[in-house]
Amino acid sequence: FGEYPDLEEVNTVAETFDAPGADAGVLSAIFSHSSSIQEALDIIEEGNFSVYYGADDTQSLGEIVVDELYGGVENLDKNTLEECFDYEAYGRSLETGGTILYFDGGAIELY
User: Fold this and answer.
1) What does the pLDDT read at residue 52?
2) Closest to 76 in 3D by CA, of 85, 4, 22
3) 28-32, 46-50, 85-89, 101-105: which has the minimum mean pLDDT?
4) Which of 30, 37, 39 is nearest to 1 (CA)?
5) Which of 4, 74, 103, 109 could form a disulfide with 29 if both were Cys (CB 3.0 to 4.6 A apart)?
6) Residues 56-84: what's their mean pLDDT?
7) C-alpha span between 111 and 100 (Å, rounded)
8) The pLDDT of residue 53
């Protein structure tokens, strides 16, 4: 917040953490990654992120994304299968192609 924080900004952040269903680990990771409080609030407000609970490394991230987003390996396109022959490689490609933040309990993908 800095030395002289704006009270309205402090209240907005507090309300964000107190919102129903808010996950403090997810919010803390986004605030820590962002260059400003407003950037973090914009990411959260616009919903420009996905949370993958249980992902704590590239392999588990790859497994979770393939299973949750694609419904399993059998639904990946041929190019993805050739490029990413294992879950860890797929998780690395997710990290390379975007911003992945790990927190205690999972991972967050910002977009």
Assistant:
1) 93
2) 85
3) 85-89
4) 37
5) 103
6) 90
7) 9
8) 93
Query: CA end-to-end span of the chain, whole Å?
Result: 24
Amino acid identity of 86? Answer: D
Based on its alpha-carbon atoms, the radius of gyration of the chain, rounded to whole angstroms, reads 16
Burial 24-63 (b: 16+ CB within 10 A, else e): eebbebbbebbeebeebbebbeeeebebbeebeebbbbbb
SS3 labels along the chain:
CCCCCCHHHHHHHHHHHHCCCCCHHHHHHHHHHCCCHHHHHHHHHHCCEEEEECCCCHHHHHHHHHHHHHCCHHHCCHHHHHHCCCHHHHHHHHHHHCEEEEECCEEEEEC
What count of other Cβ atoms lies within 10 Å of the Cβ of residue 99? 14
Residue 52 one-letter amino acid: Y
